[in-house]
Automatic annotation (TrEMBL):
It comes from the Bacteria. Pfam families: Hydrolase. Keywords: Hydrolase. This is HAD family hydrolase. The keyword RNA-binding does not apply. The keyword Hydrolase applies.
Length: 219
């Protein structure tokens, strides 16, 4: 866990969570993700398997690099148009081994929701998040809102970025940016957009870290 706090955590009034690999953890999730990205590239590009392996390593999609970039921002490196990727991932979305997954404690989330308005902000398609949450036993009704792109928004190119969604939350809650804490598993994708707005971030590797931070500092 790594904290990126621009103000005292006691000043935080709004909590924003990423979903994938933040509200759940699976020991083989990285292996599943790398296989998923490779399968996507082989399906959507003209690259050979050897070329794909080499370029994935160059871009950072490896087992060792836990901070790999989002595929949306780097698909062009593989000769894949973002629109083609968006169209593909609507029905071919990243899934994990749900049997060995560790999910966030809903009771902790309920306690937090008594003190903070809470949001889930993700780049995954809205309907796919609903499927994952149900399989993982994560109660999304605890959150004030799930902000995820619809299939239509993705295909039309109208899906908002995380930074834009963070700004919407700040304005909608009538708070200062330094009163918002974003919790996610990737610094560049989840946390940096909020830091650029003057907010706070927490990078975690599993739900237990969120639960411990909540008990020690937020509740």
């Amino acid at each position: 866990m790594k904290e990126y706090l621009c103000s005292n955590v006691k000043n935080v009034k709004v909590l924003v969570f990423d979903f994938d690999e933040t509200l759940y953890y699976s020991p083989d999730v990285r292996e599943y993700y790398i296989k998923y990205i490779k399968s996507t590239i082989l399906n959507l590009s003209s690259l050979t398997e050897m070329e794909t392996d080499s370029l994935m390593k160059e871009v950072g999609f490896t087992m060792e690099n836990k901070a790999s970039p989002s595929f949306s921002s780097s698909c062009g490196r593989f000769g894949i148009q973002k629109r083609a990727w968006d169209n593909y991932r609507i029905d071919n979305f990243f899934q994990i081994n749900y049997k060995n997954a560790e999910s966030i404690d809903n009771n902790i989330l309920r306690k937090l929701s008594m003190h903070y308005p809470m949001y889930v902000v993700t780049n995954e398609v809205y309907k796919n998040i609903l499927i994952k949450a149900e399989r993982l036993g994560i109660d999304l009704s605890i959150f004030k809102k799930l902000l995820a792109p619809s299939a239509e928004a993705l295909l039309s190119g109208n899906a908002k970025t995380k930074k834009e969604l963070y700004q919407d939350i700040i304005e909608g809650e009538h708070v200062m940016s330094n009163q918002v804490l974003v919790i996610g598993d990737r610094i560049k994708v989840d946390v940096e957009p909020m830091l650029e707005l003057g907010g706070n971030g927490l990078v975690v590797t599993r739900p237990k870290e969120i639960e411990e931070f909540a008990v020690n500092y937020l509740l």
